[in-house]
Specification:
It is a single chain. The strands form two sheets. This protein has a four-stranded parallel beta sheet, sandwiched between helices. Helix 2 crosses helix 6, helix 6 packs antiparallel against helix 7 (209-234) and helix 7 packs parallel to helix 11 (330-347). The chain is 39% helix and 10% strand. The chain is of the alpha/beta class. It is built from eleven helices and eight strands. The chain folds into two domains: 21-231, Nitrogenase molybdenum iron protein domain (Rossmann fold); 234-347, Nitrogenase molybdenum iron protein domain (Rossmann fold), CATH 3.40.50.1980. The protein has helices spanning 5-19, 28-37, 61-68, 82-89, 162-166, 187-204, 209-234, 250-256, 274-287, 301-307, 330-347; strands spanning 23-25, 45-46, 72-75, 95-98, 241-246, 259-265, 291-294, 313-316.
Length: 349
């Protein structure tokens, strides 16, 4: 029996597609980086929709099945999605890439409310202006243990007070709780991860190595251009004080020199106590807070309460990109959307 040429081409295309690794990611910013590296070959699956909080999320059956069939799972780490770790530990075939456990991922410690009172110039927002991004381009991924839970055990977190220690960990047998997990908001981390994601995909799918590496190079160039645009957009606002709903933004703040005066909740979005609310109300009055930022993933009632009787404006800022379309262009769009949200509120528009 003769086989038609269109059928042969279809079978060939299906075979090639099947060879592309099945990739699963935890949150939309990481999904965007992986989608860019895989652009033209396939697309990763996304577990946590941008409108949901990653700190507390329940997998649907279809998502659990996607994890079971994955070749590569890329997640931020248990400090952000502690509920995911047990599921990943049960996977036998998938390679697990925990981004916050990589040696070169930049990690910052939890902040207590008084930490915001430090001179924000000390955060060194110009630290990265002359950063040699090529340092990460040939990153040796082979020396990273996929789970890497002990990579940061020697970090000194003694300078954090008891409030930070109260959140020192979801009890999963690992010491990640003293580190702020919102690491994707530092674009230098995103550049590093782009290279490592590409390297892992090359290992799994060497036939498409050229595409993965070219896509990674294009992704980093786009991130660099976006960083320059964001820096220009925010340059007039280095000294403008503001409050955020939860302490998710310090990687962005230190990178671009913003002057956060406090957060309603800590990094894990735990409910604040009465003393913290009183302290924040005093800061709003004493420090001339210009903007109070709510988030679409959380109720805004506390922000509304803090704004009562104050001159501060209320705006929404979103570290997960709820209004953005997941995909290859997501990450630079996220950086710009955050810059626009900050600047628009600061300018009073």
């Amino acid at each position: 029996m003769k086989t038609s040429l269109p059928l042969i081409l279809t079978l060939t295309a299906s075979t090639a597609l099947a060879e592309v690794p099945q990739v699963v990611t935890d949150i939309a910013p990481i999904h965007g980086l992986a989608a860019k590296v895989m652009d033209g070959l396939g697309a990763p699956d996304l577990l946590v929709p941008p409108a949901s909080s990653p700190h507390d999320f329940a997998l649907r059956p279809s998502q659990a099945r996607a994890l079971q069939s994955a070749d590569l799972v890329i997640w931020t780490g248990e400090g952000l999605t502690p509920w995911l770790e047990r599921t990943l530990d049960s996977l036998s075939d998938a390679e697990i890439l925990e981004l916050n456990a990589l040696d070169d991922t930049r990690l910052l410690g939890w902040r207590a409310l008084e930490d915001f009172a430090e001179d924000h110039d000390d955060h060194g927002h110009d630290d990265h202006d002359d950063h040699d991004h090529d340092d990460h381009d040939d990153h040796g991924h082979d020396d990273h243990d996929d789970h890497g839970h002990d990579d940061h055990d020697d970090h000194d977190h003694d300078d954090h007070d008891e409030e930070g220690e109260d959140h020192a960990g979801h009890d999963h047998g690992h010491d990640h709780g003293t580190e702020d997990p919102h690491t994707w908001l530092d674009p230098d981390n995103a550049r590093l991860w782009t290279d490592i994601i590409a390297a892992r995909l090359v290992e799994l799918d060497p036939d498409n190595a050229e595409t993965y590496l070219a896509n990674a190079g294009a992704a980093k160039s786009t991130i660099d251009a976006t960083v320059q645009e964001v820096a220009t957009r925010l340059a007039p606002h280095h000294d403008t004080p503001f409050l955020v709903f939860h302490d998710a933004y310090q990687y962005f703040e230190t990178r671009f020199g913003l002057n956060a005066a406090g957060s309603v909740s800590d990094s894990d979005a735990a409910a604040p106590g009465p003393s913290r609310i009183r302290d924040l109300k005093n800061r709003i009055a004493d420090e001339g807070i210009v903007c109070l930022f709510a988030e679409p993933q959380f109720e805004s009632g506390l922000i509304d309460t803090l704004a009562e009787g104050a001159d501060a404006r209320i705006a929404v800022i979103d570290p997960l990109g709820t209004e953005l379309t997941p995909g290859a262009d997501f990450y630079p769009a996220l950086l710009m959307s955050m810059a626009d949200a900050f600047a628009t509120c600061f300018d009073g528009n």
